[in-house]
Write a structure and sequence with these properties.
The complex is a heterodimer.
Chain A lengths: L6 E9 L1 H11 L9 H6 L9 H16 L5 E8 L11 E13 L2 E10 L2 E12 L1
Antiparallel strand pairs in A: 1-3, 2-5, 3-4, 4-5
Chain B lengths: L9 E3 L4 E2 L2 H10 L14 H13 L10 E10 L8 E14 L2 E12 L2 E12 L2
Antiparallel strand pairs in B: 1-4, 2-4, 3-6, 4-5, 5-6
The chains are: A alpha+beta, B alpha+beta.
Chain lengths: ~130, ~130
């Protein structure tokens, strides 16, 4: 039964440098801050950071899996709060959870949150799905 | 600084953008998504962010793209994207403000196929002071 306040199961995704390269190629966003450690540090970042849109795409995947397919997703939004830092030769977590905030017939709104190493990386994130 | 005259302006992409199955497959592969019949909900960014980049980097508009970070992002999906879709991308600079020296630009992009709106995206881009 889906009702306001229903919690969705948490899911953990892992991001590493190879995934950043794959996302850069798939999305066309080749900004070196997502691939080149020396460059990232030269512009004041602590290390290579994930594309915010990769984080959002993974959260989108969480929504899609729950909704039963990408075709069910009508709206999806998020604010990028903090960067996901991806050191070389490490996998960092993106931990996603959600709660149902509105039910209107078969249209369901969920509020999402995503953290990486305990830090909130996506905020004010919402999806509207038909389920 | 952004040229204030550009706020409210709408720009039409010069050419139709065709979505291919291999583009959807590559995007899905990164997400370990096995269903590639429909593009993932954020796939449209592949088209709209490139258009925004082109528009805002124009010297007449004046945005310093090297200092841009993504502030927030929203998608409204009227019709899911599938391989073979051919889109005209129309982008509008919806708003612009400066706060503590940071510039905030909201750019909306509409993907239309045969004059039918499929996806709208709103990106807030922040030019760091």
């Amino acid at each position: 039964m889906i009702e306001i306040g229903t919690k969705l199961n948490e899911k953990v995704f892992y991001v590493d440098r190879a995934m950043l390269k794959a996302y850069a190629d798939a999305s066309g966003d080749q900004n070196p801050i997502h691939q080149d450690e020396a460059f990232a540090k030269s512009v004041g970042l602590p290390n290579v950071i994930s594309h915010g849109m990769l984080t959002m795409a993974l959260v989108g995947n969480y929504v899609t899996q729950w909704a039963g397919g990408a075709a069910a997703v009508k709206e999806f939004s998020a604010r990028f709060m903090k960067p996901v830092i991806v050191p070389a030769d490490e996998k960092v977590d993106i931990t996603v959870s959600a709660v149902v905030s509105e039910v209107d017939g078969d249209q369901i709104t969920i509020e999402l949150s995503a953290t990486s190493v305990g830090v909130t990386v996506l905020g004010m994130s919402k999806a509207v799905v038909i389920k | 600084m952004l040229n204030p005259d550009s706020v409210g302006r709408t720009f039409e992409g010069a050419e139709l953008v065709t979505v291919t199955q291999s583009q959807i497959d590559a995007f899905c592969a990164v997400l370990s998504e096995s269903d590639t019949s429909v593009a993932p909900p954020t796939f449209a960014i592949r088209i709209t962010l490139e258009q925004s980049h082109k528009i805002l980097s124009d010297p007449e508009i004046g945005l310093d793209w090297t200092r841009v970070v993504h502030g927030d992002q929203r998608f409204e999906i009227k019709k899911p994207i599938v391989a073979g879709d051919m889109f005209k991308c129309t982008s509008t600079i919806e708003s612009y403000k400066v706060s503590d020296g940071n510039e905030f630009v909201v750019i909306r992009s509409d993907l239309n196929s045969d004059d039918q709106l499929a996806v709208s995206t709103w990106s807030t881009l922040v030019v760091r002071a």
